[in-house]
Amino acid sequence: MLKPEIEDGETVLPDPAFRADVLAGLATEPKAIQARWLYDHRGSELFEDITDVPEYYPTRTETALLRETCPKVAEIAGKGRAVVEFGSGSSAKTPILLEAAEPAAYVPIDISGDFLRASADALRDTFPALPIHPVEGNFLQPIALPDSVADTPKLGFFPGSTIGNMTASAGVDLLRAMRTSLGEGSLLLIGMDRVKDESVLIPAYDDSAGVTAAFNLNLLHRINRELDGHIPVDSFRHKAVWNDGLARVEMHLEAIEDVAFTVADTPFTMAAGETIHTENSHKYTPRSARLLLNAGGWTPIAEWTDPKDWFALILAEA
Ligand code: AVJ
């Protein structure tokens, strides 16, 4: 029987969906576990640390690009829209848009109420006059926005190339759900990471300080902690590979020797060299980015990139 474990003073209850996903993912061939499970409390901290490592270019490239771009977005969009952010908002990027867009309201949507409240509180200090209406919910589905912004034109915000975690078909579903949530005539400002040389991509996902490795390996620790797992974590290594056919960086956990272990009393074996696929980070060309947006019901109307063409911000219309 699984017992709740105490960690950071918090009670961690075994999540039945996590358990089901892990047991199914370890039983499939090849093994794969959904990327969402990387982001527990510790995983989210480690991701924050990744955004500071020198090799991980996306966050700092996009942030610098937003500083240049948001005034231009505001010119096109006009002031007084409701900014609707998909995700709870990051300390650095959101204020850049809010500063430039002078919105009538800010509506962050996130599945984690805790993250939502924390980021809303921080923004209230910076923008005391701005009405903030957090919505707790899963934005993969169409979501009802607060009545107070029903008649306000919307500007959606989806930075971070978070869409890159999704396959094309899941990404199209998400874009269509966003279109339904925001309504026809809305605008969406989305960050999408560009295809670039492997010599830049691989180090970004396999940094020399080992922060990304720790982020990936934390999944095994999490399984051991929360699911009564007995995975020998030291027998695994982090691996980042460029899948050229599917234009994505893949993260895997590779067994460095033959291993046998149990998770929730279920036995598994892996041969040396076998991997568990844990995350995809799709990269886009100018055309593939526009095609994805189009397939999702959005018409790109403007786009901006940094001087190296490493990261793109696209403004699209529903
Ligand atoms: C949060 C999905 C945008 O794909 O670049 C970073 C996640 N994983 N390093 C990305 C991630 C390993 C990140 N996203």
UniProtKB/TrEMBL annotation:
Question: What EC number(s) does the entry state?
Answer: 2.1.1.44
Q: Is Repeat a UniProt keyword of this protein?
A: no
Keyword Transcription regulation assigned to the entry: answer is no
State the Gene Ontology BP annotations. Answer: methylation
Residue ranges occupied by any Histidine-specific methyltransferase SAM-dependent domain in the UniProt entry: 18-317
According to the UniProt entry, its GO molecular function terms are: L-histidine N(alpha)-methyltransferase activity
Checking SUPFAM superfamilies in the record gives: S-adenosyl-L-methionine-dependent methyltransferases
Keywords per UniProt: Methyltransferase, Transferase
Xref: Gene3D superfamilies: Vaccinia Virus protein VP39
The protein's superkingdom reads Bacteria
InterPro entries tied to this protein: EgtD (IPR035094), EgtD_Methyltrsf_superfamily (IPR051128), MeTrfase_dom (IPR019257), MeTrfase_EgtD-like (IPR017804), SAM-dependent_MTases_sf (IPR029063)
The record, for PANTHER family, names: ERGOTHIONEINE BIOSYNTHESIS PROTEIN 1 (PTHR43397)
Protein name from the UniProt record: L-histidine N(Alpha)-methyltransferase
The organism of origin for this protein: Stakelama tenebrarum
Q: What is the lineage of its organism?
A: Bacteria, Pseudomonadati, Pseudomonadota, Alphaproteobacteria, Sphingomonadales
